[in-house]
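Consider a concrete sample entry:
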Amino acid sequence: MKVVLRKDVPTLGKAGDIKDVADGYARNFLVPRGLAAPATKTEVKNVEAHKASQARFYSRMETEHRALATQIEATAINVAARAGEGGRLYGSVTATDVADALSKALGRAIDKRDVEIDEHIRSVGDHTAKVHIAPQIDATLKFTVEAE
């Protein structure tokens, strides 16, 4: 019997998949629990329409994320920190400081966990950080640390 999965079934497949299963498995387990429905023409059309809608949504979101990535790469920010002689900072510039400055520059909230700094920043000058926007979409941010 062909069924359309409505929810993920660990041993069978993901929601939206069309599977051929034993009649008893479909009638006694999958359908009564709401995990699947018989694969009628209407049900198959509904699944295809849902998949097309999801594809459009993910395409739109990827476009927005890529636009944000280019905007971040084009943005130059300045982070002010207390410094002593020779440009050495009293503390260090953290991902929180960079995320706050970037949020102010963009006018959009950036989470500190999305900002990745390779080494501790303890000196005045130009530095870079990686900003994670979405899976497989990262932006490189160039920023300057200035003495107060």
About this structure: DSSP finds three helices and nine strands in the chain. The chain has two domains: 2-58, 65-147.
